Amino acid sequence: MKFIRHKVLAMLMALFLTGFSFAQEKVQQAWEQLIANEWQFAQMALEASIKEAFEHYLSPDGILFNGGMPINGLKLYQMVPLQKEQELKWHPTYGRISSSGDMGFTCGPFTYSEERGGVPQSKGYFFSIWKRRDSTYRLLLDGGVVHEKNTAVNLSAASPLYGREPIDDAVPSFVQTDQNIPEEEFAHFCTIAREWPARAYRQYLSAVPLLLRSSWPLLTSSRAVFNYLSEQSAKFHDYEVLGEGKSVDGEFHYYYGRLHIRHKASALLESGYFVQVWQSEKEGWKIVADVYQADLPKET
Length: 300
Fold this sequence. Notes:
Structural class: alpha+beta
Number of helices: 6
Radius of gyration: 21 Å
Order of helices and strands: HHEEHEEEEEHHEHEEEE
Shape: globular
Low-confidence stretches: 14-20, 152-172
Protein backbone atom coordinates (compact mmCIF):
# COMPACT_ATOMS: atom_id res chain seq x y z
CA MET A 1 0.00 0.00 0.00
CA LYS A 2 2.86 2.38 0.87
CA PHE A 3 4.53 1.63 -2.50
CA ILE A 4 1.27 2.32 -4.38
CA ARG A 5 0.80 5.62 -2.55
CA HIS A 6 4.33 6.74 -3.43
CA LYS A 7 3.77 5.72 -7.05
CA VAL A 8 0.56 7.74 -7.25
CA LEU A 9 2.29 10.78 -5.75
CA ALA A 10 5.12 10.44 -8.27
CA MET A 11 2.62 10.27 -11.12
CA LEU A 12 0.79 13.34 -9.84
CA MET A 13 4.06 15.24 -9.51
CA ALA A 14 5.03 14.29 -13.07
CA LEU A 15 1.67 15.49 -14.37
CA PHE A 16 2.06 18.74 -12.44
CA LEU A 17 5.54 19.38 -13.82
CA THR A 18 4.37 18.56 -17.35
CA GLY A 19 1.47 20.98 -17.04
CA PHE A 20 3.72 23.65 -15.53
CA SER A 21 6.26 23.25 -18.34
CA PHE A 22 3.50 23.49 -20.96
CA ALA A 23 2.09 26.64 -19.33
CA GLN A 24 5.55 28.23 -19.21
CA GLU A 25 6.12 27.41 -22.87
CA LYS A 26 2.74 28.92 -23.79
CA VAL A 27 3.50 32.14 -21.94
CA GLN A 28 6.96 32.32 -23.52
CA GLN A 29 5.41 31.99 -26.98
CA ALA A 30 2.94 34.76 -26.15
CA TRP A 31 5.79 36.95 -24.90
CA GLU A 32 7.77 36.44 -28.09
CA GLN A 33 4.72 37.29 -30.17
CA LEU A 34 4.10 40.46 -28.15
CA ILE A 35 7.67 41.69 -28.63
CA ALA A 36 7.55 40.78 -32.33
CA ASN A 37 4.40 42.91 -32.61
CA GLU A 38 6.18 45.86 -31.02
CA TRP A 39 9.10 45.59 -33.46
CA GLN A 40 6.76 45.22 -36.46
CA PHE A 41 4.77 48.23 -35.28
CA ALA A 42 7.94 50.32 -35.10
CA GLN A 43 9.10 49.07 -38.51
CA MET A 44 5.78 49.96 -40.14
CA ALA A 45 5.98 53.47 -38.71
CA LEU A 46 9.37 53.86 -40.40
CA GLU A 47 8.61 52.20 -43.73
CA ALA A 48 5.04 53.44 -44.24
CA SER A 49 4.00 56.28 -41.92
CA ILE A 50 3.20 56.97 -38.28
CA LYS A 51 -0.50 57.35 -39.08
CA GLU A 52 -0.75 54.05 -40.98
CA ALA A 53 1.14 52.16 -38.26
CA PHE A 54 -1.10 53.39 -35.45
CA GLU A 55 -4.27 52.80 -37.44
CA HIS A 56 -3.14 49.24 -38.13
CA TYR A 57 -2.13 48.27 -34.57
CA LEU A 58 -4.57 50.25 -32.44
CA SER A 59 -7.42 48.36 -30.81
CA PRO A 60 -10.88 49.81 -31.59
CA ASP A 61 -10.99 50.98 -27.96
CA GLY A 62 -7.29 51.87 -27.83
CA ILE A 63 -6.37 54.97 -25.84
CA LEU A 64 -3.86 57.72 -26.68
CA PHE A 65 -3.22 60.95 -24.79
CA ASN A 66 -3.84 64.28 -26.50
CA GLY A 67 -3.12 67.44 -24.53
CA GLY A 68 -2.83 65.29 -21.41
CA MET A 69 -6.30 63.81 -21.86
CA PRO A 70 -7.18 60.24 -22.89
CA ILE A 71 -8.85 59.93 -26.27
CA ASN A 72 -9.83 57.09 -28.60
CA GLY A 73 -6.74 56.55 -30.76
CA LEU A 74 -8.49 55.63 -34.01
CA LYS A 75 -10.76 58.67 -33.80
CA LEU A 76 -7.72 60.85 -33.15
CA TYR A 77 -5.85 59.54 -36.18
CA GLN A 78 -8.90 60.05 -38.38
CA MET A 79 -8.24 63.76 -37.88
CA VAL A 80 -4.48 63.48 -38.52
CA PRO A 81 -3.32 64.00 -42.14
CA LEU A 82 -0.95 61.50 -43.74
CA GLN A 83 2.59 62.87 -43.38
CA LYS A 84 5.22 60.47 -44.68
CA GLU A 85 8.08 62.92 -44.11
CA GLN A 86 7.85 62.53 -40.31
CA GLU A 87 10.06 59.99 -38.57
CA LEU A 88 9.26 58.23 -35.30
CA LYS A 89 11.79 55.66 -34.08
CA TRP A 90 11.47 53.42 -31.05
CA HIS A 91 12.37 49.98 -29.75
CA PRO A 92 11.38 47.96 -26.65
CA THR A 93 13.88 47.53 -23.83
CA TYR A 94 11.56 46.55 -20.97
CA GLY A 95 8.29 44.68 -20.60
CA ARG A 96 6.06 42.17 -18.83
CA ILE A 97 3.24 39.85 -19.81
CA SER A 98 0.42 38.28 -17.81
CA SER A 99 0.33 34.57 -17.01
CA SER A 100 -2.61 34.14 -19.37
CA GLY A 101 -0.61 35.82 -22.14
CA ASP A 102 -3.57 38.03 -23.06
CA MET A 103 -2.08 41.32 -21.81
CA GLY A 104 1.35 42.86 -21.47
CA PHE A 105 3.18 46.15 -21.47
CA THR A 106 6.35 47.37 -23.17
CA CYS A 107 8.63 50.35 -22.78
CA GLY A 108 11.71 51.80 -24.44
CA PRO A 109 13.32 54.92 -25.93
CA PHE A 110 11.86 56.90 -28.82
CA THR A 111 12.89 59.87 -30.98
CA TYR A 112 10.70 62.01 -33.23
CA SER A 113 11.83 64.13 -36.19
CA GLU A 114 9.72 66.30 -38.46
CA GLU A 115 11.89 65.19 -41.40
CA ARG A 116 13.36 61.75 -42.06
CA GLY A 117 16.99 61.68 -41.07
CA GLY A 118 16.68 65.07 -39.41
CA VAL A 119 17.60 66.21 -35.91
CA PRO A 120 15.05 64.88 -33.38
CA GLN A 121 12.60 67.48 -32.11
CA SER A 122 11.62 65.31 -29.15
CA LYS A 123 12.76 62.18 -27.37
CA GLY A 124 11.86 60.15 -24.35
CA TYR A 125 10.40 56.78 -23.40
CA PHE A 126 7.19 55.22 -24.72
CA PHE A 127 4.87 53.05 -22.65
CA SER A 128 2.37 50.71 -24.31
CA ILE A 129 -0.24 48.27 -23.00
CA TRP A 130 -1.13 45.45 -25.42
CA LYS A 131 -4.12 43.11 -25.39
CA ARG A 132 -4.61 39.96 -27.43
CA ARG A 133 -7.41 40.35 -29.98
CA ASP A 134 -8.22 37.79 -32.68
CA SER A 135 -4.99 35.77 -32.20
CA THR A 136 -2.79 38.89 -32.35
CA TYR A 137 -1.97 41.81 -30.08
CA ARG A 138 -3.58 45.22 -30.42
CA LEU A 139 -2.49 48.47 -28.82
CA LEU A 140 -4.79 49.11 -25.87
CA LEU A 141 -3.03 52.21 -24.50
CA ASP A 142 -0.02 54.21 -25.64
CA GLY A 143 1.71 56.98 -23.75
CA GLY A 144 5.07 57.71 -22.21
CA VAL A 145 7.22 60.64 -21.16
CA VAL A 146 9.03 63.35 -23.12
CA HIS A 147 12.51 64.57 -22.20
CA GLU A 148 13.72 68.13 -22.44
CA LYS A 149 15.97 68.75 -25.46
CA ASN A 150 19.11 69.24 -23.39
CA THR A 151 18.49 66.65 -20.72
CA ALA A 152 21.44 64.40 -19.89
CA VAL A 153 19.62 61.11 -20.43
CA ASN A 154 21.24 58.30 -22.41
CA LEU A 155 18.44 56.86 -24.51
CA SER A 156 20.69 54.10 -25.80
CA ALA A 157 21.09 52.60 -22.34
CA ALA A 158 18.81 49.56 -22.30
CA SER A 159 17.19 47.97 -19.28
CA PRO A 160 16.76 44.18 -19.23
CA LEU A 161 13.99 43.08 -21.57
CA TYR A 162 12.04 40.33 -19.89
CA GLY A 163 8.67 38.66 -19.73
CA ARG A 164 7.92 35.91 -17.25
CA GLU A 165 11.63 35.22 -16.75
CA PRO A 166 12.83 36.97 -13.55
CA ILE A 167 15.67 39.48 -13.67
CA ASP A 168 16.86 38.22 -10.30
CA ASP A 169 15.54 36.63 -7.13
CA ALA A 170 13.81 39.88 -6.14
CA VAL A 171 11.21 39.57 -8.89
CA PRO A 172 7.94 38.46 -7.27
CA SER A 173 5.63 35.96 -8.91
CA PHE A 174 1.93 36.27 -9.65
CA VAL A 175 -0.28 35.06 -6.82
CA GLN A 176 -3.97 34.45 -7.41
CA THR A 177 -5.74 35.53 -4.25
CA ASP A 178 -9.19 36.60 -3.12
CA GLN A 179 -7.91 38.16 0.10
CA ASN A 180 -7.44 41.61 -1.38
CA ILE A 181 -9.61 43.36 -3.96
CA PRO A 182 -7.42 45.31 -6.42
CA GLU A 183 -9.88 48.17 -6.81
CA GLU A 184 -9.98 48.64 -3.04
CA GLU A 185 -6.19 48.51 -2.77
CA PHE A 186 -5.83 51.14 -5.49
CA ALA A 187 -8.43 53.33 -3.77
CA HIS A 188 -6.53 52.96 -0.49
CA PHE A 189 -3.28 53.93 -2.23
CA CYS A 190 -4.98 57.07 -3.63
CA THR A 191 -6.32 58.02 -0.19
CA ILE A 192 -2.88 57.78 1.44
CA ALA A 193 -1.22 59.61 -1.48
CA ARG A 194 -3.37 62.70 -0.94
CA GLU A 195 -1.46 63.34 2.30
CA TRP A 196 1.67 61.15 2.21
CA PRO A 197 2.66 60.25 -1.40
CA ALA A 198 5.99 58.68 -0.39
CA ARG A 199 4.29 56.53 2.25
CA ALA A 200 1.71 55.35 -0.30
CA TYR A 201 4.42 54.24 -2.69
CA ARG A 202 6.41 52.52 0.06
CA GLN A 203 3.36 50.46 0.96
CA TYR A 204 2.27 49.53 -2.56
CA LEU A 205 5.34 49.61 -4.81
CA SER A 206 6.59 46.30 -6.22
CA ALA A 207 10.16 45.23 -5.46
CA VAL A 208 10.88 45.46 -9.20
CA PRO A 209 8.76 48.28 -10.61
CA LEU A 210 9.00 50.44 -13.70
CA LEU A 211 8.71 54.19 -13.09
CA LEU A 212 8.70 56.68 -15.97
CA ARG A 213 9.14 60.40 -15.43
CA SER A 214 10.04 63.22 -17.78
CA SER A 215 13.80 63.88 -18.11
CA TRP A 216 14.70 60.83 -16.02
CA PRO A 217 16.13 57.47 -17.10
CA LEU A 218 14.11 54.31 -16.59
CA LEU A 219 13.79 53.57 -12.88
CA THR A 220 13.48 49.81 -12.36
CA SER A 221 14.11 49.23 -8.67
CA SER A 222 12.17 50.25 -5.58
CA ARG A 223 15.28 51.90 -4.12
CA ALA A 224 15.73 54.10 -7.22
CA VAL A 225 12.05 55.06 -7.10
CA PHE A 226 12.20 56.00 -3.40
CA ASN A 227 15.33 58.09 -4.03
CA TYR A 228 13.49 59.89 -6.83
CA LEU A 229 10.42 60.53 -4.66
CA SER A 230 12.53 61.94 -1.84
CA GLU A 231 14.15 64.38 -4.28
CA GLN A 232 10.75 65.52 -5.58
CA SER A 233 9.41 66.17 -2.06
CA ALA A 234 5.78 65.95 -3.12
CA LYS A 235 3.23 66.55 -0.37
CA PHE A 236 0.03 65.90 -2.33
CA HIS A 237 -0.96 63.42 -5.07
CA ASP A 238 -4.54 63.46 -6.30
CA TYR A 239 -5.41 60.66 -8.78
CA GLU A 240 -8.40 61.35 -11.03
CA VAL A 241 -9.27 58.04 -12.71
CA LEU A 242 -10.72 58.34 -16.22
CA GLY A 243 -10.44 54.71 -17.29
CA GLU A 244 -9.36 51.24 -16.19
CA GLY A 245 -9.13 47.62 -17.31
CA LYS A 246 -7.67 44.22 -16.50
CA SER A 247 -6.30 41.05 -18.04
CA VAL A 248 -8.49 37.98 -18.50
CA ASP A 249 -6.96 36.15 -15.54
CA GLY A 250 -7.16 39.26 -13.35
CA GLU A 251 -3.39 39.34 -12.85
CA PHE A 252 -2.98 42.84 -14.29
CA HIS A 253 -5.19 45.78 -13.40
CA TYR A 254 -4.46 49.16 -14.93
CA TYR A 255 -5.73 52.69 -14.33
CA TYR A 256 -5.23 55.93 -16.21
CA GLY A 257 -6.36 59.53 -15.93
CA ARG A 258 -5.17 62.82 -14.49
CA LEU A 259 -2.69 63.30 -11.64
CA HIS A 260 -2.46 66.56 -9.68
CA ILE A 261 0.72 67.11 -7.62
CA ARG A 262 1.75 69.74 -5.12
CA HIS A 263 5.41 69.94 -4.13
CA LYS A 264 6.58 71.16 -0.74
CA ALA A 265 8.61 73.98 -2.27
CA SER A 266 5.68 75.34 -4.27
CA ALA A 267 2.08 76.30 -3.67
CA LEU A 268 1.27 75.72 -7.34
CA LEU A 269 -0.57 72.61 -8.45
CA GLU A 270 1.16 70.58 -11.19
CA SER A 271 -1.03 68.39 -13.41
CA GLY A 272 -0.59 65.76 -16.09
CA TYR A 273 -1.70 62.28 -17.08
CA PHE A 274 -0.84 59.03 -15.31
CA VAL A 275 -0.94 55.31 -16.05
CA GLN A 276 -0.51 52.61 -13.41
CA VAL A 277 -0.37 48.82 -13.76
CA TRP A 278 -0.96 46.69 -10.66
CA GLN A 279 -0.12 43.02 -10.19
CA SER A 280 -0.94 40.50 -7.48
CA GLU A 281 2.17 39.39 -5.56
CA LYS A 282 2.84 37.40 -2.40
CA GLU A 283 2.56 40.53 -0.27
CA GLY A 284 -0.65 41.66 -2.00
CA TRP A 285 -1.44 43.96 -4.92
CA LYS A 286 1.56 46.05 -5.98
CA ILE A 287 2.36 48.75 -8.55
CA VAL A 288 4.55 47.24 -11.28
CA ALA A 289 4.41 50.20 -13.70
CA ASP A 290 3.89 53.89 -12.97
CA VAL A 291 3.93 56.59 -15.67
CA TYR A 292 3.43 60.32 -15.22
CA GLN A 293 3.83 63.08 -17.81
CA ALA A 294 3.21 66.67 -16.70
CA ASP A 295 1.25 68.82 -19.14
CA LEU A 296 3.55 70.34 -21.72
CA PRO A 297 3.47 74.13 -22.24
CA LYS A 298 1.03 75.09 -24.98
CA GLU A 299 2.65 76.33 -28.16
CA THR A 300 2.01 79.97 -28.96
